[in-house]
Amino acid sequence: MMPVGNGEFYLYLHGGMRKSADAKVKDVVAISLSFDDSYRNGPLHETPDWFESALGSDAKIMANWEGLAPSRQKEVLRYFAGLKTDDSKKRNLVQVLRVLSGARERFMGRDWIDGQ
C-alpha cells in the first residue's frame, strides 16, 4: 500500500489478483485486513551450511551481513534456497562474499556498495 497523502492509500494489485477480483487498473475495490498473530518474524529460509561457514571466515564479511536489514538478509537466503547445482552455489558464494567484503558491484539485481 502506498500513502496518497491525505490518510488514504493506493493498493497496487498485480495482474493475477486483479483478474481473480475482476478488477481493472484504477477500479475501486473493497478489502478487509486482519492481523495474523501466527506470523513468525525472521528468515523463512535456513542459512545454508556452505554460506554460514564462509560468513564466519571473515570478521568484516560477518559484520556486513549482520548489518544488513533483515529484509535484505531474507532476500539473500530466499535466493540461496532456490539454487540447485553446486556450480551455482559456488558462483553465488564467491559473489556474495565479494559484495559483503565491500566490493562495488551488482549482485541479485542490486548495486552493492561497502557491503550494503
Characterization of the model:
The chain is mainly alpha-helical and 116 residues long. It has helices spanning 15-21, 49-55, 59-67, 70-81, 86-100, and strands at 2-3, 9-10, 105-107, 110-112. The longest helix is centred in the last third of the chain and has 15 residues, at 86-100. The relative contact order is 0.11. The mean pLDDT is 90.
Question: What's the layout of helices and strands?
Answer:
Layout: E1 2-3, E2 9-10, H1 15-21, H2 49-55, H3 59-67, H4 70-81, H5 86-100, E3 105-107, E4 110-112
Task: Characterize this entry briefly.
By secondary structure, the chain is mainly alpha-helical.
**What does the overall shape look like?**
elongated
Quaternary structure: single chain
Question: How many H/I helical runs?
Answer: 5
Share of helical residues: 40-55%
Rg calculated over all Cα atoms = 19 Å
- Biggest sheet, in brief? 2 strands, antiparallel
Considering the chains and any ligands shown, give keywords for the structure:
116 residues; mainly alpha; two-stranded antiparallel sheet; two-stranded antiparallel ribbon; 4 strands; elongated
